[in-house]
Design goal:
Elements: H1 4-13, H2 22-26, E1 40-44, H3 60-65, H4 67-73, E2 77-80, H5 108-120, E3 124-129, H6 139-144, E4 158-159, E5 162-163, E6 173-174, E7 188-191, E8 196-199, H7 214-229, E9 234-237, E10 254-258, E11 264-266, H8 276-289, E12 296-299, H9 306-313, E13 323-324, H10 327-330, H11 340-353, E14 360-362, H12 371-375, H13 381-394, E15 398-402, H14 423-428, H15 471-475, H16 481-494, H17 496-500, E16 503-506, E17 513-518, E18 525-530, E19 536-538, E20 552-557, E21 571-573, E22 578-583
Parallel strand pairs: 1-2, 1-15, 2-3, 3-9, 9-12, 12-13, 14-15
Antiparallel strand pairs: 4-8, 5-6, 7-8, 10-11, 16-17, 17-18, 18-22, 19-21, 20-22
Bound molecules: 1-O-alpha-D-glucopyranosyl-D-fructose.
Amino acid sequence: MRLTGLLVALAATGVLITGGARAAAATPPAHRAPWWRGAVIYEIYPRSFQDSNGDGRGDLRGIERRLGYLQWLGVDAIWIAPMYPSPQVDFGYDISNYEGVDPRFGSLADMERLIAAAKQHHIRVILDMVLNHTSDRHPWFIAASSSRSDPKHDWYVWSDGKPGRGPNAHDGRVPPNNWVSLFGGSAWQWVPAVHQFYYHAFYRQQPDLNWRNPQVRRAMFAVMRFWLDRGVAGFRLDAVPQLFEDPKLRDERPLGGVNAFGDPILDQSRTGDLPEVHVVMRELRRLVDSYPGDRVLIGETYLPTIQDLDRWYGGARHDELQLPMDMRLGFHGDHDHLDAAAFRRRIMAAESGLHGSEPLFVFDNHDNVRSIDRYGDGRHDPMINELLGSVLLTTRATALLYYGEEIGMHTTPPARRSQVRDPIGIRGWPKEKGRDGERTPMQWTPGPQAGFSTNPRTWLPVPANHATINVQTERADPGSQLNWYRHLIALRRGESALRDGRLRMLDPGDPNVLAYLRGDAGGGIVIAMNCSAVARTVSLHIAAAGVQPVPVETLLTNAPGLRDARSLRNLTLPPYATWIARLRGRPRSSASAN
Ligand code: TEU
């Protein structure tokens, strides 16, 4: 019953081709400078995307095999989570060689092949770059921890600690302060050989680099050049607000309470977002700008306010990251729920608070419970997933998609502690079950292992719901979540108003329906989304946004009753439905629009 209006509306407008695999090939890639503005960037967790050699883990050849699918979906770039040689304590975020590929994922030649093959599909490749820390097995750290006089010693953050007793004491010394690891326990680890503690923001196998040492900068910049020279389109900078620590190693202020690991919750004022980091961001920006082709820097930036985020762009100077992630829209905290007013507030904050920079919106990644399980209500989940796609893909922003989001994959956390793979889930069980649940294998088919692997022993179990939630089944169903995402992406590629047009909120007092106008009078597009579980009938007042009412034409909707809507009056949106329409005719702009 759902979505029956979709194809009719599409066919009537001729905007989209609905004949399955033909669509993306027929839609030329958007050629605009810079390419990343309004792009769709698709995150791939390489262990979980496609296994090509039957070892139960995904790999680079597997990604290569699925490029046709990604082109059909319409993505502009893929961001591949770390595939470098690594002991895999943090599944690749503990890197022991920045200039290679872990044999589990393939070889450097496979990566070069993947970059070239992706180009044939008009898809760029973005790598994850972990600047904050290395693996404790990296030759730099092995040297650094061997002796205080080793030339690499100062490449990491060391402290003699202070005299004391207790469980963290070694030879009568305890860590210098109260800092805790984000992954549990003290952030300081004792090394007997040097009689010192080193600092680690994450696992103890991930010692933090000392960014105050110019040699560290030079070494990491050289690593980035290594990959830029091989044609990568840019980097996603991991945990980048954590790069610097207070040189005086002062205590952080406890905010009260403890986290899932039983550690005190601290204000992170001495270990996160220190001013020094922005100097490095400007240097990094100059580095990528010295390459042709609009190489891009994406930041993993969990920041509380839009003013904080704006600093990561370089504010009015626009000289730091092009795309620090705006986590405020998609990750509200522990209590995500659909709230038209909250979405409106956060979208408008990004519209007006970033000195005109492009927001980067994101609802899903490999570290968080999937959005469908945070925003879903268990009854309308497919519609809610489509609504999140509508917000992501019709706002004025670059969009990050996480593999499986487009088909409505759910989080499948381990049932028992003994099944957990992610170390934070073992340590934090049962309060923190770790991140396995959002890293399960991509669901390609209803068949064995969901088409992910020929090996029945996949690194994480394939969720049983792959029988219905999978690419093959959904591709064949015109009303599927997958086709909804694909149509949204194609629409956004085809309509300059959706890519570049300004955004004006409509009826900002409506508590249930989020509606806005993209573009200007003449070619404007109106989007209305019912964020509630009850059907809502609304009239959209575009005159208040400075545009005179004109006839409209439906471009895309999952509200069957709205496929023939011709005006903005008395629109009935079923629960969580989206309606997207073009303003027709020869509208006059009212005075306030000029
Ligand atoms: O995550 C950094 C980060 O902020 C995480 O602590 C995040 O808040 C947490 O995983 C939520 O559960 C990045 C990577 O995305 C993550 O996968 C890595 O484990 C981490 O850095 C260390 O490299």
